[in-house]
C-alpha cells in the first residue's frame, strides 16, 4: 500500500499529500483495466489516458507496471511539452527506499546509457540535416517524374516496362525508408510537421495509412521481438520463431503449416500482396500483416479518381443499367498497367521484407523478460556493415542497433553515435553484433530452418 507524506511549499503552507509506492505494488497495475507506470521515479495512472495516447494505447500499455523512463525519452522529441499531459495523471512517487529501476535491473548500466544519450544530445546528433532529407526526397520524386516521362514518350513496350519496373520499385522502396524517418519524428523539430509530411509520404507516395504504421511500429520499438507485444513477430501461425515458440507449438501438436519447411516457403511469402484485389503474389501470406494499399498512387491516379485509364461509366435507360463497350485498346492498356503494378509491388515487397527482417529474425525472439532499455534492444537487433550502398539500400536500417536505441535520431547521424554505443556495450559485456549484408540474408533462412526443426522434433517426440 502506498505511504502518505507532505511537503511544505515556499510559502510555508503544506503542499498536497504525496503518496509513495513500492515496486511490488506498482507491478500489480499492469492489467488492461488498470495501468500504472513510472517515469523518473514519479508514478502515473495511465489507465484512461492510454486510449487517447497519440502513439496508440497498446504501446503505452506494454510498459505498464514498469519503469518507462527510457522509452518515454526515446519516443518523444519534446519531453517537456509532453509533461503537461502527464501532470494530471500523477498519483505519487517511488518510496525513498525503492531503487529507480524495477526487477533488479543494473542501475549503473541504465545511468550510463542515459549519460550516453545526454552526450549524443550535446553533440547535436538529434538535429537533422535539411539538405540530406531534401536531396533524399528529391531523388525519389525524380524517379517518379522519370517514369512518367518514359510512359509519355516511349509508350508501354516490354523494354520500357522492364525499365519502369526497376525505377518504380526503387522509388517505392526509398519512399518506404523516407516515411519511416518522418514517422519517427526524426526530421523536423516540431512533431506536427513530422506528422504532416509523414502522412503525405506514406499516403501519396506509398498509398498506405500513417495511423496503421504508428499503431504497429511503435509497439515494435517499445518491445522488439517480444511475443504478445511486438506485432512484427505475430505471424498469424505462418511461421514459428525463436527457440521457445517452436517447442511450445510442437508439444501442443499445432500444425497450421509445415513449419519444418518455413525456410523454403519464406521465399514465396516475402513477396507480399499489398492490396486484397491484386493477385500478383505467389503466396500472399504477408498481405495479412500489411495495411490496405492502392497499387501505385503516383503513377496511376485513376485508382483514386484520376483521369488516366478511366473505369467505364454506368448509364441507365428506363432504369436498366447499360454497360458501355470497352475498346480493345483500353483493355490492352489496363492489362499492361496491371502487369507493371504487380511487378513493382512484388519486387518492392521482397526488398522490404528481406531488409526489415535481417536485423530481427536471427536475433532472440521470446516472451517478456523485463530487461532495461539497452539490453532489450541489443538482444533483438543487429547491425549490417556500413557502406554507401548498404546505407542507401537499407535506408540506414543497417544501423538497426543505433536506430532502436535512439529512434528519433536522424539516420545520417547513426555512424557518429555508433562508437559510443559499442564502447558502452563492451563495458557491460552486452553483445554488439554486426555482419555483412549477404550473411544477414543467409541468417534469416538459417534461423527459420532452426526454428522449424525445433518444432518438428517437439511435434514428433514430445
Automatic annotation (TrEMBL):
- Report the protein name in the record: FADS2 desaturase
Subcellular location, record wording = Membrane
- Keywords from the UniProt entry: Fatty acid biosynthesis, Fatty acid metabolism, Lipid biosynthesis, Lipid metabolism, Membrane, Oxidoreductase, Transmembrane, Transmembrane helix
Please give, as recorded in its UniProt entry, the membrane topology of this protein: Multi-pass membrane protein
Cross-referenced Pfam families: Cyt-b5, FA_desaturase
Q: Which residues form the Cytochrome b5 heme-binding domain?
A: 18-95
One biological process GO term for this chain? unsaturated fatty acid biosynthetic process
InterPro entries in the cross-refs: Cyt_B5-like_heme/steroid-bd (IPR001199), Cyt_B5-like_heme/steroid_sf (IPR036400), FA_desaturase_dom (IPR005804), Fatty_acid_desaturase (IPR012171)
Q: What's one GO-annotated cellular component?
A: membrane
Q: Which family does it belong to?
A: Belongs to the fatty acid desaturase type 1 family.
